[in-house]
Amino acid sequence: MRLQQFWPPCGPEESYCEFSIIHGLADRLEKYTPDHFTRPVLGSLETGEINAVTLLAPDARTHLVVFESELTTFANLFSKAVALAMPFNSFGEGMNAFFFAPDKVRRHLQDFPEALQRFQEVVLAYLLKGRPRRAPQYFAPPSVEVPAAFLLEGLEFFVLGHEYGHVLAGHLADGHGPRRLLGADDGEVTEVTWKWEQEHEADLLGWHLCMSVMTEECDLAVAHAGVELFFSACETLERALSMLITGRSDVHRSSATHPPVAERRDVLQMSLRELYEGEVEPAITLGTAIRHIVNILWEHTAPVVLDRYRRGVQPDPRWTTPSSKA
Fold it and tell me: Percent of the chain, pLDDT > 70?
């Protein structure tokens, strides 16, 4: 595992915090990549997407994996809000039993509304200001600190693992198109675009990498929960953006390059059942519970976004600038 002193220099316009998080994730993930794997150039830019993208540098030879510059901040605050929404019983000495039934979640949100407040703060800060860090910052209470951290790590490892999956599968020569990123002042870079089959293959390879590193410290169900949280986060922001622009809470069913989230979930669940057999039901149950919790939080948030739409409030330009899209 490479040490921090062997990291490349941080770019002059790049946040060192983002830089260190991304390379720290790569250090841990690369313990499970083949020996011949060479780390791509890693960095962050404003992309207007909750994801990372694989790019080719202008020389068309160097692979770049670029994180959305606000992804790690958003993921941190989003994970904490979802963890806060989990009802639990405390047995003292840091021992908590969490519950995920929808009725218990709804009752918990009524009794402890901070989870909904934090969820709305981060979604609105990102949607309206383009900066989730504009939401109030806070430390997760001890009762949810551990599950929030596991959700965050699982989400981040899957995002990076998916991009590594494209590299490992040799997809980089199969297709590409021009893309001008927000903040990329030196001309266009080239985004590698994929077929749906390649996205599923990258999902599976990235998921395996994510599970490998996460299960060093937690069981399969907790490891997989962060992957489900990533999909739910994508859906939440798509719904919020759609509602702010059109007044309707729509989720993009598919695109030319990415299969629908529901299909991506199904493919990973099939892999779970094939590979883990007896361990699979807790993982699927917890993943489904995470999805339900986020949906309940969105149910309460949708009227707030709809009110902004009716008052003519516009999203931050990062979400609608044509030059930021492939």
Answer: 83
